[in-house]
Write a structure and sequence with these properties.
about 220 residues; alpha/beta; Rossmann fold; 7 helices; binds S-adenosylmethionine
Length: about 220
């Protein structure tokens, strides 16, 4: 069985080879993350950052905040990295990883204040909805690596995905759906420029609920 890059799949019943490759990648990811700065007040995350248009410009506009961009696609991240190297930014790191695997293995001492999910893969067919990033399990895991009252900014051009994310946020024990909250900053992403329209949602992490003992 081919092992997708950094895929945080359940590991029951997989071959020894699959397990070996999975563990090697997980350990490499953990090793890379030891270089991340810890104990920063303003730590922001973009999941599925693609070519980094949004986060590179955001980091440049917010030198007092630290930014982490994650995407599974290495070639896209290479372009993102070239952009921020050229600009000489020292408040941003790009990491190639599957988002859940990254969140599950994030070093203690990192707690995000703002999380951006911009035009996540829509998986439009009903039988593929299980592959969508934003699910109750994801919202729980994400909340465990966020500060109390951290903000989640979600944007999509897929109405069904937005509706389901709205429902997941409004019924979540870990997040509140917030209405009328302005986004802290705007920069159109590649997919935003291609979309004929889109919807945005804002969530705020509840102050109660389960917290990662590491944070
Ligand atoms: C539709 S693109 C949007 C890219 C960018 N946010 C934009 O708006 O232009 C979705 C991105 O999410 C990445 N992605 C999909 N699933 C992911 C996952 N589980 N973990 C990390 N990145 C993921 C893809 O590689 C892709 O770059």
């Amino acid at each position: 069985m081919k092992v997708p890059y950094g895929y945080a799949a359940p590991l029951d019943g997989v071959s020894d080879n699959y397990l070996r490759v999975f563990r090697t990648r997980r350990d490499e990811l953990r090793a890379r993350m030891t270089a991340l700065p810890l104990d920063r007040d303003n730590y922001d995350l973009e999941i599925g950052c693609g070519h980094g248009h949004f986060l590179a410009a955001y980091a440049e506009a917010h030198p007092g905040r630290y930014c982490l961009g994650v995407d599974v696609a290495g070639a896209r991240l290479e372009r993102a990295r070239r952009k921020t190297d050229r600009a000489g930014l020292d408040n941003i790191t790009w990491i190639q990883a599957e988002a859940l695997l990254l969140l599950e293995n994030l070093p203690a001492g990192i707690a995000f204040s703002r999380v951006f999910i911009l035009f996540p893969d829509p998986w439009p067919k009903r039988r593929h909805h299980k592959h969508r990033l934003v699910q109750p399990r994801f919202l729980e895991l994400l909340s465990s690596v966020c500060r109390p009252e951290a903000m989640l900014y979600f944007r999509s051009d897929n109405r069904d995905y937005t509706a389901r994310t709205r429902e997941a946020l409004s019924t979540s024990p870990f997040w509140d759906l917030v209405s009328g909250e302005a986004w802290p900053w705007e920069r159109a992403t590649v997919f935003q420029e291609l979309a004929s329209g889109y919807q945005s949602l804002v969530g705020r992490k509840k102050t109660t609920g389960w917290l990662n003992p590491g944070n």
